[in-house]
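Support request from a user on the community tier.

User writes: "When I paste my structure tokens into the form, the page sometimes reloads and wipes my input. The last time it worked, I copied everything first. Here is what I submitted, just in case something in the input itself triggers the reload:"
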């Protein structure tokens, strides 16, 4: 390229024909540029003194950067002068003119073109190996030539802003034509690299004549970073940028590119900064309609900004969670208010409170599921639900397991130590395991708020946003579900094992119904979690909230409401009948009303009596195989009570001979209920069968002591689980011990002569007196 003012002086140089074989002309026309420092050292008449301006440099260069420049606006105009290489007199065969060449890393073949076309021009820049100039130095040289109107020829390219900067002026750059390009010529050009244009051997850089043609015309090429494709398509389609597809399809002509470059070159505010961006954006604004055709299908996209956690179904889910929480609080209040009733004491009030605390946690979790997800709410959801279900099931499972263990041990006549403190420790240990797991989850991979973008199936440019709570790894949630399933399974197994427990302790049907209810709702929650990748996140959260609330309400209805109904239906005038089976065949029956003695008013006391009866019945299984007989004595205390709560004049004690099976004692029909309450009589049947040899006396005594010890142990375990009414238990045990001692005395005394009727009468009299005295002292109704 050469400026217009040079073409005006020498029109012939616009073509290679006017440049060929013109060594002296080229040497005298195109002089070599001088740097600022070199000019001050060699050519300045004033040595670039700041006191005397020589018309080129106003001062000496002060920095290293200034020393090497070829032009500095208002300080150094630049200067071109002959050197030894321009002296054809001294060097007639090697002299040459100067041409500004680009770095060898560019696509320049200037040395090959000039040498083989007999154009005696050489670059004399500071950069090896081809003595080229840098991009900035090339521009400085051109500006210096334009400032001083010196002749210059240089290698350059189009489109470029420098060309457009001087367009329309006398410095406008015009290309110099060379022999036309061809595919064969282009193929013979020297290639890039150290073995081509950047070789230190000039003969290699010059190549062959076959590659000395002009540059071929080519379309603009788009340079795209190789990572743009992967960075674009590694992103999910809803979040994918259209940049790669847009760049791939867009087409910009040379004229359009020159418009942008011209705007950039003429703006002159921040040329190598913001000016380029301003030029492109201005061109896009002016040609926006033409660019629409390059936008990929499905763009631009519309983002659905609706907050789906403010939909009506979310408010309904939250309301149901609040209702469940209120029901739990109300149930807790009623449970505490009725804590002294028999049915709640048998169920253990402390464990019931723990269950209700767990249900309250689950209700709070249901409320949080209906709220906008955040880091705190996402974490609290899992904490409340997991700990809530653990507290809701574990106390019941531990209690039923303890009762099952006690019953099994009683049947096997084994000693069992069960304390309330131990049972609470078991519950606390299991809850601690759940808490440790939740802490690890919160530290390693805490649930947090995530946004899931989905493209509409009907409209590809519409994006719906699902806001949800999730962790990087989903196995955390599945472990919590497995934990809850394990608790439900444990409850089901224990409910089956507890089906033969005494009726008033037997909660197997309630426990099974509760476990089945939890299992049903838990299964639905698991299905919701498995389908978490489909559908709306807000809908899934609402479904989970409804399931949690429904689970709590169902649990309250199954386990607590029946107990409250029983408490509410109790009638104060209802008659109760308590059957007490003593040790070694001793049995008793008592009819009384709610207004009777407080010892027998306690329903928990009657419950204890039934448990002791079962333990005594099991204890009979350890009787010695050599027992001489099954002769037992039956003692019945019957007290009549009037409907208004007034007692009858006196009790009635009846002693008679009865033979019972050795392992199972049948209840005697109470045939005396219709007798008058003021009738008091004691009869003794003198027909007593003789006993076996006196050697069995010792066996009977040892057997009795063993039974008493078993009874004490069984009563001790029952007291640990069901507190209260110890006075009634002691009275029951006193009755059994008294009867056993009188029976033992009767058997020993009656082992004598069968015909000794006087001893029999004496024994009967003493026994009757002893019985009457015992009843009076014990104050037993």
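"...and here is what came back when it finally went through:"
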């Amino acid at each position: 390229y050469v400026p217009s003012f040079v073409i005006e002086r020498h029109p012939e140089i616009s073509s290679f024909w006017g440049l060929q074989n013109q060594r002296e002309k080229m040497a005298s026309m195109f002089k070599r540029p001088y740097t600022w420092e070199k000019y001050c050292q060699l050519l300045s008449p004033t040595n670039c003194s700041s006191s005397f301006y020589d018309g080129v440099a106003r001062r000496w260069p002060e920095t290293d950067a200034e020393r090497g420049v070829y032009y500095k606006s208002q300080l150094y105009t630049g200067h071109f002068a002959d050197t030894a290489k321009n002296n054809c007199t001294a060097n007639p065969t090697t002299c040459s003119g100067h041409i500004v060449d680009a770095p060898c890393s560019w696509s320049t073949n200037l040395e090959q073109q000039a040498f083989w076309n007999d154009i005696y021009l050489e670059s004399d820049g500071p950069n090896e190996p081809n003595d080229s100039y840098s991009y900035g130095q090339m521009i400085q040289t051109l500006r210096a030539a334009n400032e001083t109107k010196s002749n210059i020829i240089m290698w350059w390219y189009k489109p470029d802003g420098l060309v457009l900067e001087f367009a329309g002026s006398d410095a406008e750059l015009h290309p110099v034509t060379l022999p036309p390009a061809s595919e064969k010529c282009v193929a013979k050009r020297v290639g890039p690299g150290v073995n081509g244009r950047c070789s230190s051997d000039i003969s290699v850089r010059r190549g062959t004549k076959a590659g000395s043609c002009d540059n071929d015309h080519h379309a603009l090429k788009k340079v795209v970073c190789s990572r743009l494709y992967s960075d674009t398509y590694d992103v999910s389609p809803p979040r994918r940028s259209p940049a790669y597809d847009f760049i791939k399809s867009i087409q910009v002509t040379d004229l359009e590119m020159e418009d942008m470059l011209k705007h950039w070159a003429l703006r002159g505010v921040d040329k190598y900064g913001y000016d380029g961006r301003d030029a492109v954006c201005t061109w896009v604004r002016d040609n926006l309609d033409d660019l629409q055709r390059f936008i990929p299908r499905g763009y631009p996209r519309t983002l659905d900004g609706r907050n789906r956690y403010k939909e009506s179904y979310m408010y309904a889910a939250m309301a149901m969670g609040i209702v469940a929480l209120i029901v739990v609080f109300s149930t807790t209040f009623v449970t505490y208010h009725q804590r002294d009733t028999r049915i709640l004491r048998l169920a253990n009030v402390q464990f019931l409170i723990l269950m209700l605390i767990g249900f309250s946690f689950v209700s709070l979790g249901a409320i949080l599921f209906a709220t906008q997800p955040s880091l705190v709410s996402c974490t609290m959801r899992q904490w409340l639900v997991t700990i809530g279900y653990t507290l809701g099931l574990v106390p019941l499972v531990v209690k039923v397991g303890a009762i099952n263990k006690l019953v099994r041990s009683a049947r096997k006549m084994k000693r069992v130590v069960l304390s309330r403190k131990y049972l609470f420790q078991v519950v606390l240990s299991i809850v601690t395991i759940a808490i440790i797991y939740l802490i690890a989850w919160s530290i390693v991979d805490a649930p947090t708020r995530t946004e899931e973008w989905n493209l509409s199936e009907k409209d590809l440019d519409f994006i719906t946003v699902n806001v949800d709570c999730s962790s990087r790894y989903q196995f955390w949630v599945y472990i919590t579900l497995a934990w809850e399933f394990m608790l439900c399974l444990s409850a089901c197994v224990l409910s089956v094992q507890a089906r033969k427990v005494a009726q008033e302790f037997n909660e197997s049907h309630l426990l099974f119904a509760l476990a089945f209810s939890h299992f049903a709702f838990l299964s639905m929650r698991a299905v919701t979690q498995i389908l978490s990748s489909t559908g709306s996140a807000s809908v899934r959260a609402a479904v989970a909230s409804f399931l949690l609330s429904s689970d709590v309400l169902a649990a309250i209805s199954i386990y607590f409401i029946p107990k409250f109904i029983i408490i509410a239906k109790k009638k104060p005038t209802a008659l109760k009948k308590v059957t007490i089976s003593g040790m070694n065949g001793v049995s008793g029956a008592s009819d009384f009303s709610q207004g009777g003695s407080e010892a027998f008013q306690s329903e928990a006391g009657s419950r204890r009596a039934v448990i002791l009866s079962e333990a005594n019945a099991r204890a009979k299984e350890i009787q010695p195989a050599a027992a001489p007989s099954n002769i037992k004595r039956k003692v019945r205390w019957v007290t009549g009570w009037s409907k208004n709560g007034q007692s009858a004049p006196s009790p009635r004690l009846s002693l008679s001979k009865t033979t019972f099976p050795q392992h199972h004692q049948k209840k005697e029909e109470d045939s005396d209920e219709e007798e008058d309450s003021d009738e008091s009589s004691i009869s003794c049947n003198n027909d007593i069968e003789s006993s076996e040899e006196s050697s069995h006396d010792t066996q009977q005594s040892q057997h009795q002591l063993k039974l008493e010890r078993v009874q004490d142990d069984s009563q001790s375990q029952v007291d640990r689980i069901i507190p209260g009414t110890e006075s009634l238990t002691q009275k029951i045990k006193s009755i059994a011990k008294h009867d056993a001692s009188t029976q033992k005395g009767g058997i020993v005394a009656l082992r004598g002569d069968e015909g000794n009727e006087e001893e029999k009468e004496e024994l009967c009299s003493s026994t009757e007196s002893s019985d009457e005295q015992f009843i009076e002292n014990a104050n037993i109704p």
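Agent notes: The reload is a front-end session timeout and is unrelated to the input. The longest helix spans residues 375-411. The radius of gyration is 55 Å. Escalated to web team.
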